[in-house]
Structure formats: C-alpha cells, structure tokens
C-alpha cells in the first residue's frame, strides 16, 4: 500500500528527480545477463498501471528495432504461447500487485526465463526463493513517479543481452532533454513561461481526451490519461490515430453540451506517418468548433526515447498542476489502495 501521508510537494520533488532516475540506471550492472543470452522467441512483460507503462515503451521501441515480438501482459493469466523460449519480465514497483504475482507464478510453471524488476515486496521474496534475478530499484517513490526506474534498467538489460540496440545513447539524450525541460516546467516558473501550467489551465473544468498515434506517442497518450486520472483525480480518456478516424471521430455530433466540456490534446512527433499528420489536421478542423479546446503538443529531442519522455514529462507536470487547480493532493491514490486492500481480504 502506498504511503498516504505524502504531500503535493513530494510529487513535485519526484517529478524534478525523474532525469536522475535515467542517469542512475546507466550505472546499473546486470551480472546475471550471461544466462539470458539465448535465442528467445518472444518477450512478455507483465505489470499493471505505473509498472506496465515501461513495458509499453519497450514494446513500441522493439517494434522498430528488435528481432522478436514484445507483448505487455496486464492480467492474472499469461498468453498460451508462453513457454521455455519466452523471456518473461515481472515488473511491480511495490512487488505486491496480485495480477503480476499470478502471472509470475504461471511463467515459472511454464518454465519461461524469468527476470523481476521491483523495489521489493513479495515479488522480490519469491524470486529469491525461486533463484531468479531481481533488478532492484529504490523504494522511496510511488510507482507512477518511478517511471524512469521502471523502464530504463529493463531496456538496458535487453540491450546487454543483444535484444535492443542504441538504448544507452538514447537514455543519455533523455537525461539531457528532461533536465532542460524541468527548468521551465518546475513550480518556480510562473504561468507565462511554464507550458505545463498553461496546459493545466486549459484542461481545468473539462474532460481531457488525449490522442496519440500508433508508435512513439501511443504509450505517451496512455501515460497522459493515467497521470491525469491518478494525479488530478479527474476523468480522462485516450485514443490513437489512425484508428480513431474510423470510429471515435463520428462521435462528436451530440450531445453538444457535453462536447463543449471536452479538451482534446493531440500528441505530435516528427516520426508520425505523413498521412497521420494529415489526419490530425483534418480531424482538428472537424472537431474544433464543437469542443472546449484543442491543443497540440510536440515531442522534443532527437532519439526515440528522448522524444517519448519529453512528451511524458510535459504530461506528468501538467497533471500535477491540474491537481493544484482543483485543490487536490496529487500524490495519494486512495481508491487504488482501497481496492487492493479489499481484494486482499
Ligand atoms: C500508483 C500507480 C499504480 C500502480 C499499480 C500497480 O502510483 O501508478 O498504477 O503502479 O497499482 O502497482 P505496482 O506498480 O506496485 O505493481
């Protein structure tokens, strides 16, 4: 269970420290890596919420550069294809998420090659008694604020065993880009110069709808939505181009009063397919007069990871300023804690 005495200032501190999580991860070593240099047929990463998103980034990164498929599993059960040729990674910041523990047990039964990424909990204990390696990350954060630690060590490990390339260099650029961003996004910077504060004002009193596109901005859109939910305690929804042009776009006709409360954020990246860029422009024209706001934000940096995390960082800060707008402490997630406690009974 998360510590509910954490204040709003804690979340701001966690956010400011995000670039350091990537920098720290660059110093991690994986002495067990030798045993994992095998011709795997697939990688399955199991986790939920803040612990799953790192898997999504690995999946989208791998789609462009890895020789095998990556599947992110957010469930108690594993897909039937998991077997001894699967590299299975259980990710749980607390180490106590029941769905992830269940998937871990199934992976063990199916004799997959198991690695765990956690700050401790039952997962670390089970891995120790089963003899599986644990990538241990610091435990003084809340899961969604540990997003650097829940991605970077995993990607660096996959690079070390030859399944991903260019990870180290891209994480180095990510550190640089995020350090530059935090100088304008942090709470010392007032509204006129702070894009995250400005976005939060636009999203206030609206239902945010975040649109990304399949590929780089896909997991960023999910992250924006989840951070608005968990930090600002507000509804938020997300979808992806081009798929949303084949259904969701039709749903902007009625009810007019409800549509007038929607704020659409379009996440853009230089790598978006040219036809997707065209779709974004046309879609904007279609909905603009019907919703409260349409805002576009663009990624920064050169590499895939720097561009991806530049969007995530802006969204993270925006969600915390939105919490401030509503007078809400962004840090505790009492509903999630309640659910977990009830389920554990
Ligand atoms: C809370 C958060 C949640 C958790 C999720 C799984 O900050 O982001 O989405 O990540 O409930 O818990 P863990 O990460 O401990 O496995």
Structural features, described:
The chain is built from 13 helices and nine strands. The strands form two sheets. It has a five-stranded parallel beta sheet, sandwiched between helices. The protein folds into two domains: 31-165, Glucose-6-phosphate isomerase like protein, domain 1 (Rossmann fold, 3-Layer(aba) Sandwich); 185-325, Rossmann fold (3-Layer(aba) Sandwich). The mean pLDDT is 97. By secondary structure, it is an alpha/beta fold. It has helices at 8-16, 18-25, 53-65, 98-109, 121-130, 152-160, 167-185, 195-203, 218-232, 256-259, 274-287, 304-325, 334-344; strands spanning 42-46, 70-73, 86-92, 113-118, 134-136, 207-213, 237-241, 262-268, 293-298.
Shape: globular
CATH topology of the largest domain: Rossmann fold
CATH superfamily of the largest domain: Glucose-6-phosphate isomerase like protein, domain 1
Distinct ligands:
fructose -6-phosphate
Q: Output the CATH class name of the largest domain.
A: Alpha Beta
| Strand tally | 9
Keyphrases for this structure?
binds fructose -6-phosphate, Rossmann fold, alpha/beta, 345 residues, four-stranded parallel β-sheet, five-stranded parallel β-sheet, globular
